[in-house]
């Protein structure tokens, strides 16, 4: 039975970020592969990679994203090389944290309503919509489909309206402090993710045993 809001103030839903909360950080091997494909010093590659990410996460195309990264780096990648970069990048974000997966399973078994709110491009969002670990989730919200990214307050307002849950009875878990602070400013009960143990303590404090 789904856990819903009631007059006693029970939790109406738990909204999770994906990257580095449910997912593992990209492995050393995945990072190395991307750096080798980039063909520039690692620091330069990651600087360009992250600088251009907001537009990609907000709905930009993969080809456009990698062209902008190339422009920053002064690189000239042919379409086959861009395809390899794209494939390596998507794959780098598909590894799942076993502890987080176990927590999600316990929450789902207890009937807790789950939702996802992730800054992610269309390429990754498409893969995640078929991901087994996310099957128990009631709703999946991706920045690429909304056209805006966390920590824009409009993202959180959209999620709350879609779920139909009061902010104060909606839990939110994210690994980025700016996203957590933005949620808290709207009255959402937000947790800055720093590991599975702290997450379980946070959830137990709101949900009791699960």
UniProtKB/TrEMBL annotation:
Classification via InterPro entries: HAD-like_sf, HAD-SF_hydro_IA, HAD_sf
Keyword Hydrolase listed: yes
A matching Pfam family: Hydrolase
Keywords for this protein: Hydrolase
GO molecular-function terms, A-Z: hydrolase activity
PANTHER family xref list: ALPHA-D-GLUCOSE 1-PHOSPHATE PHOSPHATASE (PTHR43611), FLAVIN MONONUCLEOTIDE HYDROLASE 1, CHLOROPLATIC (PTHR43611:SF3)
NCBIfam families per record: HAD-SF-IA-v1, HAD-SF-IA-v3
Protein name (record): HAD family hydrolase
